[in-house]
Amino acid sequence: MSDATLDDRGRLTLPKELRERYGDRYHIVDLHDGIKLVPVADDPLEALRDEFEDVGTTAAELRERARETALDEAGR
Question: Taking the model in full, what pTM does it have?
Fold first, then answer.
């Protein structure tokens, strides 16, 4: 963990090693007890593809499964 201080214009400078590791863009999330910086990928769609590349079920299959479950629960 490292400390950072806002400058007189309200800017926060992250340490070089964090910028190199996580990049230059972040979402700021307001939590009940502080804030959280969430890195934003340069290409968010590519990041999603990478995250879910090992998932074997397609979106169409998931929709059909959800539809079938809903019909079963409704008493088809």
Answer: 0.54
Mapping DSSP to helix (H, G, I), strand (E, B) and coil, where does residue 23 land?
Answer: coil
| Residue for token pair 């863009």 | 25
- Rg over CA atoms, the chain: 21
What pLDDT, in 10s, does the model give residues 52-70?
888 888 889 989 999 999 9
Helix (H) or strand (E) holding 17: helix 16-22
Residue 52: phi, psi to the nearest 5? -110, 20
Three-state SS at 21: helix
Per-residue pLDDT, 12: 92
Beta strands in the chain (DSSP E): 26-31, 34-39
Task: Tell me the average pLDDT across 1-9.
Answer: 87
63 Ramachandran zone, left/alpha/beta (phi>0; psi -120 to 50): alpha
